[in-house]
Write a structure and sequence with these properties.
Layout: H1 3-14, E1 21-25, E2 37-43, E3 46-53, H2 61-65, H3 70-78, H4 85-100, H5 106-135, H6 139-159, E4 168-169, E5 172-173, H7 179-203, H8 207-213, H9 221-227, H10 231-236, H11 243-246, H12 267-291, H13 310-323, E6 329-337, E7 340-348, E8 356-360, H14 362-368, H15 370-374, H16 379-389, H17 393-397
Antiparallel strand pairs: 1-2, 2-3, 4-5, 6-7, 7-8
Length: about 400
């Protein structure tokens, strides 16, 4: 916290006979980022406890996935983190491919990398601009959403949908990139760096912004390890943990990029890390576009179904609708989603539907640590902290 905040905190703590009281923060609060409900125990303006209540968005996604085929289950992942949709699809597609012991074609991998990084920018733009709106800066929200509109257009061009794309499929991707779409992506990458500069002009050295963020919501490295925080939260506290680098998937091991880290582990460092990660994503997209080569976009089965063989057609139909394509097995797959480590523990019993699908959502871990992060802060600082945790309730309530 800043010096002014420390002085105010000391004064408030010295006041005797202040009766603690509880208030509801959300779900109606505009800074609650959806359906978050916090029960705050306050002593004056100081937060003594912050108890998160979840379940207002619960749809039983993990249970529903047990009753859907692997392909039917894919769109459910779009709805988990509805700010970074293709990243959710990505982890499920990888999990199914790991059970199948199949590797998708190179072109499909590069397309996945391109759209994963576009999705990371989409997510960070939402996080930074809504956080700024919570703190009181309105203009970055308008500027950032203008750029998000262009990203939605890139989603729409490849999938026909602005949000829930169902584009990453087990075995590859649904559609190839056209030359016109590649040109549009190049154009976005070339122009977006200056848009980041504009947002930074408004925020990075803004005195009010720095006073509201610096030394607020500090998280130590020990707390990161204890609570299982990942993603920007961990990197903002100086831990260079990024699954794209430590456990590379797809073609990330062939791409050169840096891992931005913070020093103080406060809200301001987490803001700076997100800004720098958007710049790194632009570099990754540019490299992936330059490496993009011709080839198939889906895994091709070696066994073909001929029109003249009714037996093969029936066998394929039974495999898809009942028997399944791989043996009983289980595995855990994780990716570096925009919010942190997103994992899927998938269990197959040889049928065409998952026997069990357990989702490790990074936001769930971040939210459950809010009391440890926010204890002793001012009520207004809780809003700032929530903004940097980047909470979306689809993945938390599942």
């Amino acid at each position: 916290m800043s010096n002014n905040t420390n002085n105010n905190l000391s004064k408030l703590q010295n006041i005797q006979n202040i009766k603690a009281f509880r208030i509801n923060f959300g779900p109606q609060h505009p800074a609650a980022h959806g359906v978050l409900r916090l029960i705050l125990l306050l002593q004056g303006e100081i937060v003594q406890r912050a108890e998160p209540h979840i379940g207002l968005l619960h749809r039983g996604t993990e249970k529903l996935l047990e009753h859907k085929t692997y392909l039917q289950g894919l769109p459910y992942f779009d709805r988990l983190d509805y700010v970074s949709m293709m990243s959710q699809e990505h982890v499920f597609a990888l999990a199914v491919e790991k059970l199948m012991k199949k590797q998708i074609p190179l072109r499909a991998q590069y397309i996945r990398v391109i759209y994963s990084e576009l999705t990371r920018i989409l997510n960070h733009l939402m996080s930074i601009t809504t956080h700024a709106l919570d703190v009181g800066a309105f203009t970055p929200f308008l500027w950032g959403f203008e750029e998000r509109e262009q990203l939605f257009e890139l989603y729409e061009k490849i999938s026909g949908a602005r949000m829930h794309a169902a584009f990453f499929r087990p075995g590859g991707v649904a559609k190839d990139l056209s030359p016109l779409l590649i040109e549009k992506i190049y154009k976005f990458v070339d122009n977006f760096a200056s848009r980041i500069d504009e947002i930074e002009t408004l925020l990075t050295d803004n005195v009010i912004w720095k006073q509201r963020l610096i030394n607020v919501g500090k998280i130590t490295k020990q707390a990161i390890m204890r609570h299982g925080f990942t993603g920007v939260i961990a990197r903002g506290s100086g831990i260079p943990y990024d699954l794209r680098y430590t456990s590379p998937y797809e073609l990330y091991k062939y791409i050169d990029f840096n891992i931005p880290v913070g020093k103080n582990g406060d809200c301001y460092d987490r803001y700076l890390v997100r800004i720098q990660e958007m710049r790194e994503s632009l570099s990754i997209i540019h490299q992936a576009l330059s490496f993009l080569s011709r080839g198939p976009i889906r895994y091709k089965q070696s066994r073909k179904i001929t029109k003249n063989s009714m037996e093969e057609l029936i066998s394929h139909f039974k495999n898809y609708t009942s028997y399944g394509f791989f043996d009983s097995n289980e595995d855990y797959t994780a990716i570096e989603a925009p919010k942190g480590e997103l994992g899927v523990y998938l269990v197959s019993n040889g049928k065409n539907k998952p026997y069990r699908c357990k989702i490790r959502a990074p936001g769930y871990f971040h939210l459950q640590g809010i009391e440890a992060i926010g204890k002793g802060s001012f009520l207004a600082d809780i809003v700032t902290i929530i903004g940097t945790l980047d909470i979306v309730f689809g993945e938390i309530d599942k």
